[in-house]
What does this fold into?
Amino acid sequence: MLRKFALSLGIVVCVTLAGCAPAPQSDGPTAAKEVSKRAILFPNYPQAGRTYLSFSSAHGFQVNYLGQGGASKLWYPGNRAVLDEEYKRDVIGGTQVLCWRHGGNTYNPVTKKRGGNFACMPLDLSRKTIVAELAGDPFKLTTGALPYRLNRCVAPAEFTFDRNRFGC
It folds into this structure.
């Protein structure tokens, strides 16, 4: 069941739809396989009031601020704007999942799909994408302004994690 979710979604790894980002070179199933081999470093993910750094070979580094009530902000590599998104936990077929919804005007370069509907993936797989976290909204993503244009292969310096292990 977990494999079906991961492969059918083309790995919506953390997260997610990109507004105008260029398409990464890696394909979804390869990224799912890479991520599934990792240990869960943040078993309490997702928690509101925290900013998370995720990484997969498909998307590169992404930054998510999770707000209250399922509201979230996504800083996606190459984008010129913060993306509004929604997240929720659910159970599908007996499997805990984490689901994300982005606006209908967004596009996921990995899955080649437009936003508008919730896309879900197993919670454990979602947790394996997270490589670092920070308290609060240190990048002020809730303002809608990006600190700078994020490079898919370069994580913001504010995060502490094994930069030799995670990266392009």
About this structure: Residues 1-27 have pLDDT under 50 and may be disordered. The beta strands are 50-56, 60-66, 71-75, 83-92, 95-102, 107-108, 113-114, 119-122, 130-135. The longest helix spans residues 28-36.
